Amino acid sequence: MEQALAHRGPDEGKIWRDGPCGLAHRRLRIIDLSAAAAQPMSNEDGQIWVVFNGEIYNFHPLREELCALGHQFKSRSDTEVLVHGYEAWGLDLFRRLRACSPLRSGTAAPRNSFLARDKIGKKPLFYLVDSERFVFGSELPVFKCIPISGQ
Prior knowledge:
Helix content is 17%, strand content 28%. The chain is α+β, with helices and mostly antiparallel strands. The chain has a single domain, classed as Aminohydrolase, N-terminal nucleophile (Ntn) domain (Glutamine Phosphoribosylpyrophosphate, subunit 1, domain 1), CATH 3.60.20. The protein has a 4-stranded antiparallel sheet with strand order 3-4-7-8, with helices on one face. Strands 1-2 form a two-stranded antiparallel ribbon. It has a two-stranded antiparallel ribbon with strand order 5-6. A hairpin with a 5-residue loop joins strand 3 (41-42) and strand 4 (48-52). The two termini are 17 Å apart.
């Protein structure tokens, strides 16, 4: 699935997996070119993970507010605001964001995962839910890579 999106993020690809839960991301480096900004990205203890495709327009003031609350950042990426913001504010984070994005996030436990997107829906977000899995992607070709149930 990660390779199906290589054209969207030619600079880097990364996969995180923990048991039945996994996230894959392709990256086009724009804001922070360092490896510290790679996705999937987690908080310090690895309990919150995120993949994000978009832009957070107000990430600088949110980052300053989170730093004042004691959060320490390892990158200059707007994505990192999401993991620390979720730690600090929970789902209230989404009322604070001015963003153009679909967002896939959650905890290491699959039952605590969620999807979010910007109010206008500028970026595509597709998903599939069946009795065995929850799969999502920013383009339809990733769904061609899903193993058929029972195989």
